[in-house]
Amino acid sequence: MNNARKFHARLVKVGLDADPLFLRRLFGLCCRECAAAGDSTIASHARDVFELIPSPDTFNYNGIIKSHSHYPSSASQALSFFSRMISNGVRPDHYTFPSVLKVCARAHLGYELHALILKIGFCDFVYVCNALVNVYGCCGYVESALKLFDEMPDKDLVSWSTIISCFVNNGFWTEALQCFQQMQLVENLKPDEVTMLSVVVAISSLGSLELGKWVEGYIRRNGFKLSVPLGTALIDMYSRCGSVDESIKVFDEMSQRNIATWTALINGLAVHGRGKEALKVFYEMKKTGLRPDHVMLRAVLVGCSHSGLVDDGWKVWNSIRDDYNMEPMLEHYGCMVDLLGRAGSLHEALDFVSKMPVRPNAVIWRILLGACVTHNRLDLAEKVKGRIQELDPDHEGDYVLLSNAYGGLGQWNEKANVRTLMRDKRISKDPGYSVLIVDQEFHKFVSGDDSHPLSKEIKEFLVSIIDSVRADGYSLGTTNVFHDIEEEEKENSISLHSEKLAVAFWLLSFRNRKTMRIMKNLRICHDCHCFMKHVSCKFGVEIIIRDRNRFHHFKEGACSCKDYW
Predict the structure, then answer these.
(1) Cα 373 to the chain's mean position, in Å?
(2) CA torsion 59→62→67→71, rounded to 10°?
(3) Is 484 a domain residue?
(4) Is residue 178 part of a domain?
(5) How much of the chain is helix, strand and coil, in % rounded to 5?
(6) Is 96 in contact with 82 (CB distance < 8 Å)?
(7) Domain boundaries, position 495
(8) Domains identified in the chain, total number
(9) Span 414-435, average pLDDT
(10) Percentage of residues in the chain with pLDDT exceeding 70?
């Protein structure tokens, strides 16, 4: 901003600070430096100069709006200038709307602007349409975004990247990949790094390692440099697809890394139960001179929690204030409660929560509730549930946890009371489902569901699998079945859990392969965890399950979590 201020000072000195021609030149310089500086405070000088311009025209309004559109903190001022522009009868042009729509996308506004754009006749300009597609995507109106995209007479690279990003950000990951495939059929149109980042994120969410390896190959074949954003996205993708070893390969190949890159690798190691390796990477990062942020410290604490590294967890916790002069955030407190709870130090965890300088939220108490149930401390669980009741009384997971705990101890009356309370409050349990990915096809299984075309064969084969592993010592764990019913009925209920159905289908259809990958929406239960260990040993396969909390790698009768989850 020095050049603009120096020029302004010179105009004042020579008495030309009120000359319209020089004011417009000064204003243009302010706008250019405002965009280049990346600092919203510099926009204030552009505003001061703008107010000196007599009868500002479309060009001037475009400049002041664009100057404020770069920063979320000044979004309201950008919209205010646009409103003032319309009120003063200054006609917007095709350069006005992209800046205004950029602000609207952040604020989840802008639906009404489409009508104005149609009325003025700017819907034929590709960058105006691109901005509108982005607004609809940011507001969650995916159908409207797609309709507008399909109706665009001309589409450029930004058009395709925007609609792909719209699908990704709204959870339509398969549609995003289908759109990317269509894009590749367009002549003289090559994706850029922005496009590829969206594609990588879509594959991360789907959890398909096959697609992950394909997209990395595509990136390399098409000459993309392994930039920091792209490399970091690939590290996260491979981790979420169940292959943290591939993440390490990408990390080692990168010539430059930032804090997000290190965090992606540490978090990947953490959720795969490789806490000691996560700590090792953390300390290697410190040697480079990089300073950890709150996100990285959370990832390190997760690694300690999932691997039972209590002493290391305390060291990291203490370093937040002592070494980095930072205040722990609520999520860090949650990690420590989880660390102590998993280790069975329930009273220490309760004491930790009671001494928190910030008020614990329902999530903190819920973590503690889960630990109490895991360690069969119903006395503490009931107290903790009371605290949750004050903050979030209708969360289905809390009731399910208590119901399971009562069932595990055979306290059927108490269990029935919890289930009755759930019915009275109209609280239902989310159905468990598992997704098996084979050859880029997704096979979904729901607990007890018969919708799969091979449902009958799968269930019959599952019975034979259970009988087979029973001979090796497996027994169905029926303690968490929801009702006080006969043992045979309990066994039938728990044998139809979605991940068991997925395993039976895989063994029935793809027995010649050595690794199966399953994604599950809920935390894997103890019985299914035991079942997977026996199946991996009996059938000589590796089973990788991504549940709600972490990854489990079952191989040769053991799990990577070492039964600590």
Answers:
(1) 28
(2) 180
(3) yes
(4) no
(5) 65, 5, 30
(6) yes
(7) 433-559
(8) 2
(9) 73
(10) 88
Residue 472: phi, psi to the nearest 5? -100, 10
Do 477 and 441 reside in the same domain of the chain? yes
DSSP secondary structure of 540-560: T-EEEEE-SS-EEEEETTEET
Give a yes or no: residue 253 inside a domain.
no
Amino acid of residue 565: W
Q: How far apart are CA 332 and CA 344, in angstroms?
A: 19
DSSP conformation letters of 450-477 = --STTHHHHHHHHHHHHHHHHTTT----
d(CA 268, CA 36): 35
Q: Which residue has the higher pLDDT, 326 or 119?
A: 326
pLDDT digits (tens, 9 = 90+) for 468-510: 999 888 887 655 444 443 433 344 455 688 999 999 999 999 9
Under 8 Å CB-to-CB from 193, ≥6 apart: which residues? 224, 227, 229, 230
CB-neighbour burial class of residue 105 (10 A; exposed 0-12, middle 13-18, buried 19+): buried
Q: Residue 356's pLDDT band (boundaries 50, 70, 90)? A: very high
Q: How many CA atoms lie within 13 A of 299 on its CB side?
A: 26
Measured at the CA of 195, the angle between CA 135 and CA 248, to 5 degrees, comes to 125
Distance CA 415, CA 400 (A): 10
Is 187 contained in some domain?
A: no
Q: Residue 193: pLDDT band by 50, 70, 90 thresholds? A: very high
Q: What six digits make up the tokens of 40?
A: 């919203």
Identify each DSSP E strand in 6-137 by its residue range. none
Find where tokens 């602007």 sit.
113
CA–CA separation, 161 and 431 (whole Å):
35
Question: Residue 422's domain is classified under what CATH number?
Answer: 1.25.40
Encoded tokens for 455: 């449902």
Domain co-membership, 456 together with 470? yes
Could you count the other beta carbons within 10 Å of the beta carbon of residue 309?
21
Q: Give the H/E segment covering residue 147.
A: helix 142-151
Give the residue from 186, 177, 229 showing the smallest Cα distance to 207: 177
As a whole number of angstroms, the distance between CA 195 and CA 298 comes to 29
